[in-house]
Amino acid sequence: MAMNVGSGGGDEDGEIMVDINTTPLIDVMLVLLIMFIITIPIQTHAVKMNMPVPNTNAPPPKPPVIIRIDLDFDGTIGWNGEIIPDRNTLEQRLQAVAAEPDQPEVHLRPNKLVTYKYVAMVMASAQRLGVTKIGIVGNEQFLN
């Protein structure tokens, strides 16, 4: 009951092959796979770190010298805790500081209640005598 659909010749040698030949495609794919494996860099399990370079400079020989000038509310001047009697003594000490080759730092610490004329007097004397490293410290008391 089967029906034979095909050419009328009857011999099977003349039939057209309908299947695709996959052998050349597999060869091309294997060649591409090998090329990809060769071109991929080898994975290393090392962690690259930037290590610090050793410092060849010598550390500073000594910390800087700090001179503290305190101004009390009534205009009293203190030099590292010692009370200075008059302006001439202050200027002599400031002149000695200015004459040093490596000047120490001068920290001026005014009281919250001191009038500005005393602060201006000390700063003007220091500038006139050549003191270059001077600064006002304790400014946080003036915030309120």
Residue share in β-strands = 5-15%
Helix content: 25-40%
Top-tier CATH class of the domain at 66-139: Alpha Beta
Mean model confidence by pLDDT = 85
Describe the model.
- With 144 residues, this protein is of the alpha/beta class.
- It has a domain at 66-139: 2-Layer Sandwich (Nucleotidyltransferase, domain 5).
- 31% of the residues lie in helices and 15% in strands.
- The chain is built from 3 helices and 5 strands.
- The protein has helices spanning 23-39, 87-99, 116-129, and strands at residues 66-71, 77-79, 82-84, 105-110, 134-136.
- Strands 3-2-1-4-5 form a 5-stranded mixed sheet.
- The chain is rod-shaped and about 130 Å long.
- The model has no long low-confidence stretch (mean pLDDT 85).
Summarize the structure.
The chain is built from three helices and five strands; from the N terminus they run H-E-E-E-H-E-H-E.
What descriptors fit this protein?
single chain; 144 residues; alpha/beta; Nucleotidyltransferase, domain 5; five-stranded mixed β-sheet; 3 helices; 5 strands; 15% strand
Give the arrangement of secondary structure elements.
Layout: H1 23-39, E1 66-71, E2 77-79, E3 82-84, H2 87-99, E4 105-110, H3 116-129, E5 134-136
Helix pairs in contact: 2-3
